[in-house]
Design brief:
There is one protein chain. The chain has 362 residues and is mainly alpha-helical. Helices cover 68% and strands 0% of the residues. Helix 4 packs antiparallel against helix 5. It is globular and about 60 Å long.
Length: 362
């Protein structure tokens, strides 16, 4: 049960937890993921926003019926102890693998743009040490870091002004020049960039004003949707259809359109500042994995951080395991699809709740 002192998240924490965790590295390659639709991809982020709104409503509604319990506890209540713990185990694994994917993608970005001839071992270790420091402070520490990250990174959109000037508005038309198959491929790949808002089912018990949790979280979601929409719009205006499909991390390449006499590579500034966005996503998912491990195998409060160290070591092993990039990508893709399941999972639990409403004791 959650006590009063556990309720530490105010409205600003909730807004920026939803907003910052969603971005991560996903927005960096969003235009490429949507490239099967060509120039017609512009309004896909708005569609994703509508889907996120509906699924977020289901999540908050379910959480309101169990205000002092997170998803791990709700699984045990509604599905039974053994089935619930089994589901929780897979959720923990998904959070760990997804965190490894976030940092692995960022390391791939660094190696392909700035540090081509260096190994990633030392940067990964530095990331993980920062991650331990932030997560060790709890969910409020993560929320504060999310707020700081937003104001540190939001001004990077200024660097896209030259891409807007050099782009062509004619690329925005026609709007619906795509097939059903192309839409499905873009939808499936693109929504990966919107994962993150579903974590509210884990930190909901820590929210102070639960009655306004949906409103505050939705505001954070739509800030991210708006940023993704603007990014996609500028990318469509600036790039050719071939470039949308083949230029990896195309958002950073938008910065290269900038013209400063005293800065040779503006994209390096973007890569550096993106560290903050990577850490916001990683810390939130690792915190969830830590909470789940403690729910699965409770430890005394003084030893609770042991799980944090174990999870961090697992992330390092996944990143550095001696397999090809293709094998790693398949593992990460499987994790992403489990993330899709996690988004619709509350709908399944709602049906069980309505069916067993009289039997469930909250």
């Amino acid at each position: 049960m959650s006590t009063t002192k556990d309720k530490v998240l105010n409205r600003y924490h909730v807004i920026f937890l939803a907003q910052s965790v969603m971005l991560g590295t996903g927005i960096l390659s969003l235009p490429q993921k949507l490239s099967s639709m060509g120039y017609s991809q512009t309004f896909m982020p708005l569609l994703y926003g509508l889907i996120a709104t509906l699924t977020l409503f289901a999540m908050v509604w379910l959480c309101s019926k169990f205000p002092n319990d997170d998803l791990f506890k709700m699984n045990e209540i509604l599905l039974g102890k053994y089935i619930g713990k089994t589901i929780n185990f897979f959720i923990i694994i998904q959070c760990i693998v997804f965190s490894a994917e976030i940092i692995s993608n960022y390391m791939h970005l660094i190696q392909s743009t700035a540090l081509q001839e260096q190994t990633i071992t030392l940067p990964v270790l530095c990331f993980l040490l920062l991650l331990i420091y932030i997560v060790n402070g709890g969910i409020k520490s993560i929320a504060r870091f999310c707020i700081m990250t937003f104001f540190i990174t939001i001004w990077m959109f200024y660097f896209t002004r030259w891409a807007i000037e050099k782009g062509s508005v004619s690329h925005l038309l026609p709007l619906f020049n795509f097939t059903t198959k192309e839409f499905y491929a873009a939808f499936k790949q693109g929504y990966f960039s919107f994962l993150g808002y579903e974590l509210i089912v884990f930190y909901f018990p820590f929210i102070i004003d639960k009655k306004k949790a949906f409103r505050h979280s939705l505001l954070g979601v739509w800030i991210s949707v708006f940023l993704c929409f603007i990014t996609t719009l500028i990318s469509v205006m600036y790039y050719s259809e071939w470039q949308l499909k083949n230029v990896e991390f195309s958002v950073l390449n938008l910065f290269k359109a900038g013209e400063f006499t005293f800065i040779e590579r503006i994209d390096i500034i973007g890569i550096t500042l993106w560290v903050f966005l990577i850490l916001t996503s990683m810390t939130a998912y690792v915190w969830c994995a830590k909470q789940g491990a403690h729910a699965l195998f409770p430890l005394p409060k003084k030893k609770k951080n042991y799980y944090l160290y174990m999870i961090t070591c697992l992330i390092f092993v996944i990143i550095k395991m001696p397999v090809s990039r293709e094998v790693q990508d398949k593992l990460f893709m499987a994790s992403n699809y489990i993330g899709y399941i996690l988004i619709i999972w509350p709908l399944f639990l709602i049906m069980i709740y309505l069916f067993r409403k009289k039997q469930v004791q909250v």
